[in-house]
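BUG: 3D viewer hangs when loading the predicted structure for this chain

Environment: internal workstation, default settings.
Expected: structure renders.
Actual: progress bar stalls at 90%.

Input used:
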Amino acid sequence: MTERYFSMLENGKRTPSAKLLGRIASELGVPVASLLSEDAPEAPKPQLTTAPDVARALMSYGSSGSAPAAGPSELRERVEAAWRVWQSSAERFSEIEPALPDLIVDVEKSVRAHRLATDATARRDVLRTAADLYGLLRSYCRRSGRLDLALMVADRARRAAEDADDPIRIAAANWNLGHCLLSQEDGAQEAEDIAQLAVRELESVPEARRTRRCAEPSNSSA
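Structure tokens produced before the viewer hung:
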């Protein structure tokens, strides 16, 4: 179809066939009805399918109990197992949801327990694990329709990575935060700002420190 013919369609000088309307709508990614009305099509509302227990755990509604905080190695194994399910299972939502509430509570409890710990290595390991869990939760919440929770856990991931002084995880957390912003209306500029900040921060990290702090691989989706 020539530009001239398309212009004639836009100006009402030609009437497109039903087949042509369908092709134009398909190319534009809109329903055919939107081409036949002067009213803007109503944006589809996302379905909020995040499991209630997961949302409650993230909002700290659940009780952490009196049991001692889990150790860094145990938490690392559990978070890595959750990542394996998320990355490989065809039924990842139904498989991972039962494990997430307790995992969220236990990781946050361990982060609090190690906040003032004298063992710097254990504290850093717990914070790295927290950053990786929040990275997984960012993907889970975003894909299950809760962009508000996705933004919250993306911010938690960045804070945990910063507290762990882990440049690679900081970069991954900024990448995740940028994707959350891109999912929101008019969020492109904010996402660009986050990306540029992340690049500047990563470029300012000496190579020796980058290697030292990031010896343990991250399961983040970056």
